[in-house]
Amino acid sequence: MKTDTEIKVLGLEILSRNLGLVETERFIALIQRERFDYTRWRESLFQGLSGVELSRLAMEHQKTLNQP
To answer: What is the longest distance spanned by two Cα atoms in the chain?
Structure first.
């Protein structure tokens, strides 16, 4: 299990790698500004999608990450 610090560092690395520094800062500001309930957001994120559909979407997304 990772420590809280390791999770924070990894999260920031992932955000900055995928969003860039400016958008990472904007994301953090947006999250801090709102009364954000991650659990509720996560529960509704893939609402209405079957496991098969979610898997298909994930595989399609993975293909875009591997393209030059």
So the answer is: 38
Distances (CA, A) of 30 to 2, 36, 53: 25, 9, 29
Domain boundaries, the chain: 4-65
pLDDT tens, position by position, 26-60: 999 988 888 878 888 888 888 888 999 999 999 99
| 3-class secondary-structure state, position 28 | helix
Q: CA 23 from chain center: how many Å? A: 13
Q: Which residues make Cβ contacts (< 8 Å) with residue 23, sequence separation at least 6?
A: 15
3-class SS shares of the chain: helix, strand, coil, % to 5: 75, 0, 25
